[in-house]
Amino acid sequence: MTTSRPACLDWLQMLTGICLVVFMYLHALFLASIILGPGAFNSLADFFEKYYLAQKGGPAIALVFLVHFFLAARKIPLSSREQKKFLSAAKMFRHRDTWLWMVQVVSAVVVLLLGAIHMWVVLTDLPITAEKSAARIQTGYWLVFYMLLLPMVELHVGIGWYRLGIKWGFIKSAARHRAKRAEYYLTTFFILLGLIILVRFLLLSS
Amino acid sequence: MSRKLKYSIFRYNPVDPDSKPGMQEFFLQETENLNLFVALNILREVQDPSIQFDFCCRAGICGACGMVINGRPGLACRTKTADLPDQVSLLPLPGFRLVGDLSVDTGSWFRAMNEKIRSWVHTDKEFDPQEQEVCMDNRVAEKIYELDRCIECGCCIAACATAQMRVDFLGAVAMNRIARFMIDPRDKRGHKDYFEVVGTDQGIFGCMGLLGCQDVCPKNIPLQDQLAYVRRKMGWQALRRLMPGQA
What we know:
Chain A is an all-alpha fold.
């Protein structure tokens, strides 16, 4: 008898994926409060800490993040034979959605590494304040770090929800091109928003 | 002034020990309404009788002339040279056993796939030739017919990087077949039975949603929607199996 394992893992991959997409977009919007000023940012951060959303929610998201990585990693070709096959198929075909999957794999690895570092640094130094964040971004290579993490996260999240919609049928074939356009716009919007946030932190005097 | 098209054709004869895989160039003047299938026939008749490629119906019905045209799997008979640039590269469909040059054996692959997913109507009903045929609801019949238009050309498998990477992946054509039986009231199989054949990593849960299949299907079968339909049905079936008292 066929086991339910592959199906259940696929469900979990989708559900953890949705959680992370929603979290990442909200995360960016909350961060955007810095545009209004450190006061707005700090009171939002206070609110999250008062209700233990940062203390408990942070590690919970970290767990979802890890689970999602392990589930999705099942699809990444590990043997060099499979990698070669995928690459030669992608090169021959020059097909956008096939290449977007490669972007997802590369961004996944970068996000796993840099995202874990980011979570560690932030969650081991609570409470979150505008001053501490600004100080971090103004020190050493942290700006370069975030300049790399930002587009990788946004690409992964954007392609992620598009692909999820395709796979489970939330996006029908008739709506595919519109959904893809929406994905490009949304990804561009969040990358630009992230850049504005970074510049704002960079210019914040401590 | 018509164009002179350059064809780079993959040449290799696996049964000839002296044959080495490589591309061979041919030139042919373009004529009005020329399609790739006719061009290949002219090349074979006039320039090189040893070029191997398959064809049968020349009208997009048999699915035999599937090949990779400028990097894209498609049917030679449905490809007009007017839609192609001055240089045309032709490769055999990947993922199938090479017979020679552009000819591949899709038959063995499709037979194995159809056997694996048990691609026929399962029924206990004795056939009575005297009995009047049972009428099928027209909407259902049309839905089935839409999916039954598949000609098994193999383009969806050649265009699927997942199928190329994982040889045991059944591909869009198999999911489309299963979707066809799912909506057929004559098939007594339930979702439980379908789950046995496609509720796996070789079946629907191996699909990564790359959609190469949807974008190349020469018959424009809505494969994206069929794959999602099978995934949802099999997903729910897996959850039902987890309920207590369910096998």
